[in-house]
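Lay summary. Proteins are chains of building blocks that fold into shapes, and those shapes determine what they do. In this project we predict the shape from the chain. Here is one chain we studied, written as its sequence of building blocks.
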Amino acid sequence: MNTITRDTVLVALREHIGKENGISAARLVRKISGDMFCLLDERQLRQVIVELRHEGHHIGAHPSAGYYLCRSPAELNEACLFLYERAMTSLTQISAMKRISLPDLAGQLKLPT
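And here is the predicted shape, written in a compact code that computers can read:
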């Protein structure tokens, strides 16, 4: 039984290259940790995935596919677009709740407009 670390996640994802070979968070946690599973492990997995992406690892994810290592530049672009759209959805909600236009909010956050 392994703990969820950068190394254990990368080793497990080596068997999941390409979107068509993605693995769900729950299955990835089980693969790394054995049969023991809890929601805190999924949270830890997601945190490790973020850290790995910050280090530059090309880890894609999509609700319909799960986690995977990107196989090509096109797949990496698709994974980045998914993250961008998710971020824009959150920013749109923030702009509505604060009753401020999205371009004004983007300017306040110093985001490219």
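What the prediction tells us: The radius of gyration is 16 Å.
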